[in-house]
Amino acid sequence: MKAVSDWIDSCSKEQLTTYQEWFILADSDGDGRISGNDATKFFALSNLSRSQLKQVWAIADAKRQGFLGFQEFVIAMQLVALAQAGYDINSDILKAEIDKENIKSPVMEGLDGLIDTTSLTLHSQPEAFGTAQPQPLPLNSWAAPKSVKKLPLNAVTSIIDGLKRLYVEKLKPLEVTYQFNDFVSPLLTDSDFDAKPMVMLLGQYSTGKTTFIKHMLRCNYPGAHIGPEPTTDRFVVVMSGSDERSIPGNTVAVDAGMPFSGLTTFGGSFLSKFQCSQLPHPLLDEITFVDTPGVLSGEKQRTQRSYDFTGVISWFAAKCDLILLLFDPHKLDISDEFKRVIGSLHGHDDKIRVVLNKADQIDTQQLMRVYGALMWSLGKVLNTPEVMRVYIGSFNDKPINEGFVGPLGQELFEKEQNDLLADLVDIPRKACDSRINEFVKRARSAKIHAYLISHLRNEMPAMMGKAKAQQRLIENLEDEFKKVQRQFHLPAGDFPDVEHFREILSSYSIDKFEKLKPKMIQAVDDMLGYEIPELLKKFRNPYD
Question: Alpha-carbon distance 312 to 320, whole Å?
């Protein structure tokens, strides 16, 4: 991420002004985005080979959004200039030692004539296109030039836009009809699709969750409290903002620009224990962190929580791109509440990473034993055949205690820390793929939910004995799940938790549910089978 910002910062004021003019010229529909078609026409003026331009697009559109914003366009132009100067364009070039400040603007043949033609067009149609002469862009600014023309609201110019449209037209009607939002997950809003990737930290108290975030940011943030006792008593979302401030949970939940409106379902008791900490930071421009209260041990302490703790964790798990489970070498026991918390992450196993923090507090021999004990404890809780990836280190701003770990341990910690940092840096690049993955997962879940609800509705009598029939269905819910699974040939692993489903179902009248609507199911099947693949094909690398 820093490598990208260095490339932007290295541009002179004159270069940025030039690139702004080129960006407006290349942006055929004036929406502030260079599509694949726009790029193929404009980049052809560079006279580079197709394979070179394929690499240019792949590196510039690292997040796989399917378009180039102004920031990505500037990087593309710098890469074109390097390719013209004889450099080999590959994925490592952003990290290479290159004198970026002396990179000249690329040579684009026939561009001057296009600029003259466009200037005449802009002058002759001022109402349609706005001002003809773009204002100079401030140095170091990453903002795209202002759009010169408004597009219809339903225009699809990126993968995320396409997912929004598919959700509203195909998936949302199914969710509303069968009350998916009450049983599984609240309805999605635009802010859910547009949100930055999120990283959630989980662990028992004093395992270094808040310190880890401070270590990543290299600074303090509003609402950060650190101590050996359970200091973080609330969920804190640490995200980018224009200035340092803390926003109370109720305010955050009603802000349409933030993806947290679904948390209102957990009530005022939870929202009073929720806050958003904002501060300007380059890392937070790419990632949002979620700090959580330390998981308690003991049944008495668990019952003192005034909200559904595991329910909130499950809600965040669905939204997050990465979940870090932090452990302390001196706190390896997994309490009952921690077991429930880890159990609530079911279905998101691919997002979980384990961090053995504060590992410099023990010597190498003890570390080996602690690592074995941790893997044994996790094996009893995580019901997966795969071995979980465990990062070992000491994620704080203090120097590593060499007296304990020795030079070998220090080298190990540095390698582990670099691996974890690489995992975190990779999150923004995978964000678009993660959105697609979660969307498809949600669609399949909504389909199964519709089958379950409609099946239960069909089992109800038309007139007499409704109360008894409902009681029987709720008591024999496992058998009803198996019937639906066999009837529609569905994978058992995709079905919801029986107990959770039973708990919510008991407050509804099953005979009021809708019967199965095959057209709605078919629309979702078509979306999964044809429309999403077509969307990905439309916004893939235009040089593939």
Answer: 12
